[in-house]
Amino acid sequence: MRGKKIKKEENGTRKINPHQLSALIVLANYGRESFNNVIIPWAAGCQTIGICAYKECYSKPQKAVVGLTDLSARKNVRKQLGDNIFTFAIPFEMFLEMEENIESSFLYRNVWKYLSKFL
Asked: Are 56 and 85 in contact (CB under 8 A)?
């Protein structure tokens, strides 16, 4: 992916558990001036991984989007995904920023080493 030209509107959406959600929220806010760099919009499941995530590619500053909070969506995907899953959409530029912060982040500290056993 390093050699590929990235389009402005590209983002990545992953399914995550609550421990991963906590970690990604910390990492998304790490190194930024504000602490509101992750949003949880009141929207349908498909909107949070589509429209809301796409919109954030053009926002300044970009924000990550937590999804799968829609009750109907959770009801309909629980057999496939389980009960402890959310989605986390990150604009690609923000992803690169988060990636640069990994070395100095919490990921090498004892609390994350402990929690990561339960992933």
From this structure: no
